[in-house]
Specification:
The protein has 74 residues and is of the alpha+beta class. 32% of the residues lie in helices and 11% in strands. It has two helices and two strands, in the order E-E-H-H. Strands 1-2 form a two-stranded antiparallel ribbon. A hairpin with a 2-residue loop joins strand 1 and strand 2. The radius of gyration is 23 Å and the shape is elongated.
Length: 74
Amino acid sequence: MQYVTIEAEIANGQVVPTDGTHLPERGRVLVTLLPDAKHRPDWDAVEASIGVLQRPNLDSVAWQREVRAEWDRD
């Protein structure tokens, strides 16, 4: 079984592929309705958060070992 994902719009109640793909005459589909693309990320807020997410003084290997060791504790 092969699954194919395409991008499409709904126009007058019909699915219209955005890239010119031809749909089969009959078939089964799963449809996910997405919100309109009018909302755009606030890139100033995203860029301001990047520095907060970085941890330059953190030894990531040691941190991973510590977190995993918690799983083994009773």
